[in-house]
Each structure stands twice: as structure tokens, then as C-alpha cells.
């Protein structure tokens, strides 16, 4: 799976303002910004992202996904 493939899967199932992905094809590191994360704890945000991947997580197409998840306001407050 490519970074574009994974990005498209996440974006198709989650309204995202921003997504960045890095990885080696099996192990991925993502930064995801979405209004859908508002009012949710980190575990709930991650579960929401995992739900967009469905069977891809269970069939090992995506072996590991480490995430940083932000609301738009949290993202805007991040130092750059």
C-alpha cells in the first residue's frame, strides 16, 4: 500500500482538513486533522480512523499505524 492509497482511504471515510503520512508500506505515521475529532478522547479519535480502514487493518495491508490526531483548533495552536 502506498501513502496515497492510505491517505485516500482515510479521507474517503473521514472528513479531514489535513493528512500527512510517512512510512515504509507497512508501518505508518500519520497526522490527521478533522472536525470529527471535536469532543472525542484520543482513543475515540484513533478508533474513528481505524474504522475508515476496516479490513485493511485485519488483513495486514496496514500492519501498524501510529497517529497524532487534532481538531482544527488544536492543529492551529501547534508550533511550526
TrEMBL record:
SUPFAM superfamilies, A to Z = BolA-like (SSF82657)
Q: Which InterPro entries match?
A: BolA, BolA-like_sf, BolA/IbaG_stress_morph_reg
Which chain positions lie within coiled-coil regions? none
Family, similarity comment: Belongs to the BolA/IbaG family.
Q: What is this protein called?
A: BolA family transcriptional regulator
Amino acid at each position: 500500500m502506498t501513502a496515497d492509497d492510505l491517505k485516500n482511504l482515510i479521507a474517503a471515510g473521514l472528513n479531514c482538513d489535513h493528512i500527512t503520512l510517512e512510512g515504509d508500506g507497512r508501518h505508518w505515521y500519520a497526522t490527521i486533522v478533522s472536525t470529527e475529532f471535536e469532543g472525542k478522547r484520543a482513543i475515540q479519535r484513533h478508533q474513528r480512523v481505524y474504522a475508515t480502514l476496516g479490513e485493511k487493518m485485519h488483513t495486514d495491508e496496514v500492519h501498524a499505524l501510529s497517529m497524532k490526531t487534532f481538531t482544527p483548533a488544536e492543529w492551529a495552536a501547534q508550533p511550526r
